[in-house]
Amino acid sequence: MNRRNLLKTITLGATALPILPAFASTTQKKNATIQFSLNTSTLRGHKLDLPKIIEVAAKAGYDGIELWISELEAYLATGKSLASLKKLFSDANLIAVNAIGFAPWMAQDLAKSKAGFEQMEKEMGMLAEIGCKRVAAPAIGATDPIDLLAAGEQYARLIALGRKTGVMPQLEFWGAFEPFHQLGQALATAAAANDPDARLLPDVYHLFRGGSGFEGLKLINGSAIEVFHMNDFTSKPRLDQKDSDRVYPGDGIGPMKEIAATLKAMGGNKFLSLELFNETYWAQDAQEVANTGLKKMKQFF
């Protein structure tokens, strides 16, 4: 067969084949598994202690709680133990999902960063004793401009510390914190860490406030986000917005349906955690706020 006839045969044969997209997969991607958490900041103005917050969250029907290190320390200051706090979570059938702390591990100053790592290790140790497997890792101590490759090396060290303690750091960015306010910065830092245990902790409000937007979430593998802070924002100018302006999901102007679709489609196991600082809600009954927050999240999931 000459070359011309061979090409004709190949061309004719190809027309009988179905046209498939390149790299088509026969395995359908599973949607994310969603659970719901209450960040204790949502009830901060109610001045409740940790045992009472656990009671409120359990009654509302949450799967878990995000506590703050300061609340854990306040609990211990009453003379109670970490073992008794772990039992409170267990008896309430709640998971200690994550903890919020402020150790300056990402500081460019070596002495401050060293102190931050020591603080992180201490706090991770306490969290491990109550069964909490995650801790937020915001860029505390960092100053502008940040060398993101260097920050990635620091984050890699923090991840290694997490494996040692059993409490994994979730890299967090804040929309109003100029040195580290953008999803792109967090993605670059996590990539520079070059570690399979790198995790991001995004927040609807911070994605908006820092100008990241929400399309970048579509670049993220589902397993890279285990905790996602849920809230909404109003029509107030972006740069004028404060933490206290956050509202229930769906009560603002955020693209909540699109965000929900993105989170579900990316796969992985996720805790959606209601994090609000709204003084209007603090003036209401705590149980009503917890109940309403869970209902508002579930309408999108």
Automatic annotation (TrEMBL):
Xylose isomerase-like TIM barrel domain mapped to chain residues: 55-295
Organism: Algoriphagus winogradskyi
GO molecular function: isomerase activity
InterPro entries (UniProt xref): IolE/XylAMocC-like (IPR050312), Xyl_isomerase-like_sf (IPR036237), Xyl_isomerase-like_TIM-brl (IPR013022)
Name the UniProt record assigns to this protein: Sugar phosphate isomerase/epimerase
Keywords, sorted A to Z: Isomerase, Signal
N-terminal signal peptide: 1-24
A Pfam family per the record: AP_endonuc_2
